[in-house]
Amino acid sequence: MRAVFTTVLVRVAGSTQLVLPAAAETEFADAVAAVVALSMAVGRRFAESSFVDTLSPWLVACAVTGGRLLAPPGQGELINTSALLGAVM
Fold this sequence. Notes:
It is built from four helices and no strands. It has helices spanning 2-13, 27-45, 57-65, 82-88. Helix 1 packs parallel to helix 2 (27-45). The N and C termini lie far apart (40 Å).
């Protein structure tokens, strides 16, 4: 999980404001540190936007994982429903 959030963190923060979280003792702690670092980077990047004040680290984690942060691997399938609409028209 840390790798996923760190990758998004690098893309959101860019090279000028990148602050990578230090390694923690457990995988869980690593993932939490990456989620918090990403949330802070989103806050810095979009500071002028009014919605940033309402974002919690867990809302950011939910957005990055499509709501599947705690789901077992391989559960469900992401689909693009708009592709079906284009085929009909």
